[in-house]
Structure formats: structure tokens, C-alpha cells
Amino acid sequence: MTPYSLYPARISARRTETAGIYTFTMRFVDEEVRRAYRFKAGQFNMLYAFGVGEVPISIVSDPAAPESLEHTIRTAGRVTGVMAGWKVGDVVGVRGPYGNGWPVEEARGRDVVIITGGLGCAPVVGLINYIFRRRDQYGELHILHGVKTPNDLLYRERFDEWRRAPRTKVYLTADQPDRSWHYKIGVVTELFDELRVPPSSTVMMCGPEMMMRFAAHALRQKGIGDEAIYLSMERRMECAVGLCGHCQYREHFVCKDGPVFSYRTLRELFGTSGI
Amino acid sequence: MTESLHMPKAVLGDLIAILWSEGFKVLGPVVRDGAVAFDEVRKVSDLATGIRDAQEPGRYRLVPGTSGEIFEVVNGAGSLKPFFFAADETLLEVTREQRGFKVTEVVPAAPRLAFIGVRACDLAALAIQDRIFLHDRFRDTHYQTRRQDAFLVAVNCTRSASTCFCVSMKTGPEATSGYDLSLTELEQGFVMRSGSAAGEALAARLGLGAAQHDEIVSAKARIDGCATGMQRRLDTADLPRLLYDEVENPRWKDVASRCLSCTNCTMVCPSCFCHTVVDQEEIDGNMSRRVRKWDSCFSLEHAHIHGINFRPKIENRYRQWLTHKLASWIDQFGTSGCVGCGRCITWCPVGIDLTEEVAAIRERPVKG
User: Fold this and answer.
1) What contacts B215, CB < 8 A, 6 or more positions away?
2) Which one of A219, B175, B212, B312 is CB 3.0 to 4.6 Å from B154, fit for a cystine?
3) Residue-wise pLDDT tens digits, A146-177
4) A77: nearest CB among B288, B306, B312
5) Which chain B residue has its CA at the smallest distance from A2's CA?
């Protein structure tokens, strides 16, 4: 069987998160495939639109319920543009799961710092939900999120919900605020003054590389080791099985070695453009 | 090591005939469009004999041969790669149904291929592609289907092209593994060795006698002469560290000012494996083929995602290609991605020579 083989899945629910961002719930049509399928927090699937193509999309639902999969898709290009039109009952193609996922086992018992920036925070929403469903297994949870403008703050009500939860702190900042913005002003690293965490914390980040680079630097100042700082990398992932060559980041295949890497693994490469 | 046999030149035709009778499609170096390429061979006279290749950076010409040997031409643009890792093949057919669609894997109708005249560098490249497509976490079954029954007759090089540097890459000029039979051409006949049970069985059917001691000595001397006469070199000492450290070397800009980003080097490279899969929909919209095509890290879209191109400049892409080939490939697959065949030098339209680029970086490092 070719690793490119894909399996039909039927969409059972569609939810609009905000304009251009949709969450689809889907189930494999074949019962055997559905029963055999397992995934880990932070892994992704390749989703296929008939006649158009495939894109890698992270699974945001909980790995404890693998029979029903949720994917949040942002309309960004040709393929995701078609996916925006998917309706309940439509059959789409799925293969996976791929990637290593978040280090949720390693972080167990520790304080967790989650840092996101920009629009690409769907993988992090799944991670936060994962921790909340197992809240007693983790220490303090710190969620730091930076956006360019207040309009870019998606999931606003979820951030409010998380803020009200016990042992949880939410820090928001906007680079270009307007009058409605009553949180911090500036880039994500502006939030680090308020952040009080022990060096034993585990950090997980997702967002623009520049943001992650500055954040990693600031976290080192707080005594957190490079091996405990994890970054979710974004590259062109076409095959997801380490064969097509597109997602290479020097020696790393982001699709099969990542997409989550420790800062220790990447620090030599980080900050050099054009790799 | 197996016994060395003497094969008279006339028996080469028998070898070809037996392979056909065994159900193989036999391919060997033949003249096509002013160069040699692997193509169908029914008899010895189909082979590219009586000519040799004159290769220089950016230049390839076939000229009259001088030695009278059958295998005087070293190589052409085409390696074994396209026969196993097809440049264009359908992987899946997705057919629309009443409710949804059906996915059918397209298994290639691959003939059993036998190759006559495979050079050591190309065998080394084949081993690299095997490592990638057969022995990684995910196995490429299309490659496997084409590859599994191949029969390989190597020819040890007794002459090199000016662009060859297999000695530096430790892949030649003698084939040491990965073949079923190997031949070293002498004035009178060949010295033959088998490298597999299949090779041994076939050799037994040819009714050959043992090679004379002086033939074995002469075969070795010819191969050694080829090695010592090889003009081009690539210093591989600590090369991965050098390239990783020299990520900001000005030479990348310099080579980018010459490089056309045309992808020729990656197309002729026997180990380059990048590919893309595209949908080709039938005109009635009821069936779509998922078709794999070769891709290249020199293409503008290779590192492009929505709104970001990670390698927008030619200097980024040339650096990616060279660093991958000679450095990160070793981290990924435990072997260099370069076998020293020299094709990327010959077939570069502007004659960029990777050995020269590496030497320039080594000569003028900017780090430390």
C-alpha cells in the first residue's frame, strides 16, 4: 500500500470560528479504518479535497476520542479555499496521523507555558483543550498570545473562559491596538515581565519564527532550559512521510521529525533566513 | 569474493539473449539524441560502441572512440533513477461515487528490467535511493514494485570523463556491491564476477572458464589507472561542518549570480528524490488521478507556503541543494547524497561545478 493512500471520511459537523476559519468534525467511512485509527495530541492529518489536492491540518479534537476527528482550517490558498465550502454530509479524503505532536507526557506534573502569535494558533487550541481535560495532571498553566491588531484575536470568548479557570493565567498583547483593547500593548515578549514561572516549566510555542526566536531568548533568561522549550515549525509539507523533500529544514524533515522540535535541536539554525 | 571468470566479447550477446529469454527487458547505453542513454538492447551492436563522451562543465559531445572497447562511453544525462523512481506516474485513482468517492491504488505494470553497463557511481546512487524509498519509516511501494526484480550488470570504469570525481566520493571507479554481475573490459574479453545468487546462476549458464591471473592483474591495473587519472576532486574532510558553518559565505551570492535555477542538476542527479503529487482530473469530473512528478529544490514553489517563501532567492536554493547533497543528507540517511558522477556539472547550462564551489568556500571561510 502506498503511503499516499487516502481514506474517505464523512463530515458530521461544521462550525464557523470566524470569517475564513472553520472547524469540521469528520469520521472515517470505513468502520475498520475508523476503529484502527489513533493519534497523539498535536499530530496532523493530510486532508484531501476531491480533484484539487491535499493540505496538512492539525487535529484539534481529543486523542481519547479518535473515532471523531476535528480539524480547524483557515482559508489561505487554493485547496483550503475549496475546503471552506465543505458541508455536513460531504465525503473528503484523510490520511494520517503524522508528526510527533506536543510533548504532553513530558510536561505532565510541570507548569506549562503556551505561547502563540498571529493567526496560526489552531494547533495550540487543541493542546489547551487537552490539558484542561486532564487539568489535575498539570501544574500552573500560562497562556500567552500576541496579535498584530485586536481584530486578529480569534477565539476571544475561549480566552475569557480560560482566564476564569483555576490555576490558569492568560496574557494578551496587541502590536497595533485600538481603543477597545484593554490588554497589554506590544509584541509577545512584552508579556514576559509579568510571567513568573519556575525553571522546571515546559514551554510550547506556535507562531511566526521571529516571535518564537525572541520568546526562546526571553525564556532562557528565566532559567528555562533549551530542551524544555518546544516550537511547532511550519514548512511546506506535501507528503507528510519524509519522502517528497519539501519540508526540509537543514537535516530535519519537519513532517516526520517534527513539526515540534526542542529549541536545543533548532537553536543553531534559528535566525538564519533562507534555510 | 567470488571467482573471476573470463568472458569472451562474443558471449556478451549471449548474456543479453539469456536475459531476454528469462523475461527481462534488457537496457544498456545506446546513442539517443547525441548522448548516451539507457534504452532497449537486443544485441551487442545496439550498444553505444566505437564512440566516447567528451564532457566538460556545461558541455557534452560524443566523439569517435579510440580504444575499440564496447563500453568506452562513461555516461549520459540519464541514470537508473527514472526506471525505478518514475518521473511521472499515477499513484491513486479517486473515483466519484453516489455518496463520496472510491480510492484505488494504481500498481505500476513494471517490466522486469535488466541493465547492462551500469557504472559504480550509478550503483551507489541506486543504493541511496533504496535507502530513502525502501528503508525509511515509510516505504514507497511504487518504487519497490519497479525496483524489486531488477538485474544489474555493472561495468567497471577504465576511463573517466573530465567531470567524474567518484574517487573523492568513494563510490568508484570499481563497483563493489549492489550488482548481480560485474564486468571489467580488457582488449580481449571481460573479467566477470558475480555479486548475487541470481548473477552466479546466470554466469553458470554462459559456460565460462576461470580468468587467467594476468587478466585479473590487467583488469585491476585498468581500474586503478582510471582512479589515479581522475582529474576532478572534492575534498570531503569535515564537509558537513564546513557547509553548516558557512551558511553566510559570500560565495552563495556569487554562485547565485551564475545559477539559472533551471533545475537541470536535480533532474540529472541520480540520487535527488524530491517530488510533488498533483491532481489530474478527468474532463467529466468523475475521476481524479493523484500523479507524482519529480520536483526540484530550485523551483520557486518548493519551499512556499501561504504567504511565505522560505527560500525566495536563488542563493537560498543553491545553498539548500548543495548543503543537502553534501551535508544534511548524511544526517538524514547516513550517506552523502553525492556519488561523484559529475552529471550536474556537465548538464548545467552555465557550467557551475559543485567541486569548485565547495573549494571556494573552503578556501575563504567567513566563520572562525
Assistant:
1) B4, B6, B186, B189, B191
2) B175
3) 988 888 888 888 889 999 999 999 999 999 99
4) B306
5) B141
Cβ distance of B312 and A274 shorter than 8 Å: yes
pTM score = 0.95
**Is position A186 within any domain?**
yes
What's the grid cell of residue A202? 515546559
Q: Which residues of A touch B132 (CB under 8 A)?
A: 243
B337-368 per-residue burial string, b: 16 or more CB within 10 A, e: under 16: bbbbbbbbbbbbeeebbbbbbbeebbeeeeee
Q: Residue A269 and residue A267: Cα distance in Å, rounded?
A: 5
Contacts of B93 (CB under 8 A, 6+ apart): B103, B104, B106, B287, B288, B289, B290
For chains A and B, CB pairs below 8 A equal: 126
pLDDT of B145 higher than 70: yes
ipTM of this complex: 0.94
Together in a domain, A126 and A42: no
Residue A104 falls inside a structural domain: no
Check whether residue A91 and residue A118 sit in a common domain.
no
Q: What residue numbers bound the domain in which A74 lies? A: 7-98
Same domain as A70, residue A145: no
Using only C-alpha atoms, chain A has a radius of gyration, in whole angstroms, of 18
Cα–Cα dist B132/B273, whole Å: 8
Asked if B133 reaches chain A (Cβ–Cβ under 8 Å), the answer is: yes
Chain B positions in Cβ-Cβ contact with residue A233 (cut-off 8 Å):
none
Nearest in space to A206 (alpha carbons), one of A29, A52, A91, A44: A44
Question: What does the block give as the cell for A242?
Answer: 519524509
Burial class (CB in 10 A: 0-12, 13-18, 19+), B20: middle
C-alpha radius of gyration, chain B, whole number: 22
Nearest Cβ partner for B137 among A51, A256, A268 = A256
Whether A135 and A251 map to the same domain: the answer is yes
pLDDT tens-place string over residues A207-228:
989 899 999 999 999 999 999 9
Cell 464557523 belongs to residue: A16
Count of structural domains, chain A: 2
Chain A contact set for B100 (CB, 8 A): 8, 10, 29, 91
CB–CB of B127/B172 below 8 Å? no
Residue in this structure with the C-alpha cell 569548485, named with its chain if needed: B356
Summarised one tens digit per residue, pLDDT across range A54-78 is 999 999 999 999 999 999 999 988 9
B69 closest CA partner among B85, B52, B91: B52
Residue in A2, A77, A268 nearest the CB of B142: A2
Q: Are residues A29 and A164 in the same domain?
A: no
Q: Is A187 in the same domain as A60?
A: no
Classified as helix, coil or strand, B51 is strand
Domain CATH number, residue A87? 2.40.30.10
By the 10 Å C-beta count (0-12 exposed, 13-18 middle, 19+ buried), A2 is classed as buried
**A226: CATH:** 3.40.50.80
Kindly determine whether residue A1 and residue B105, on different chains, have CB atoms separated by under 8 Å.
Answer: yes
The C-alpha of A46 sits at a distance from chain B's nearest C-alpha, in angstroms, of: 13
Q: Which of residues 46-85 of B touch A (CB under 8 A)?
A: none
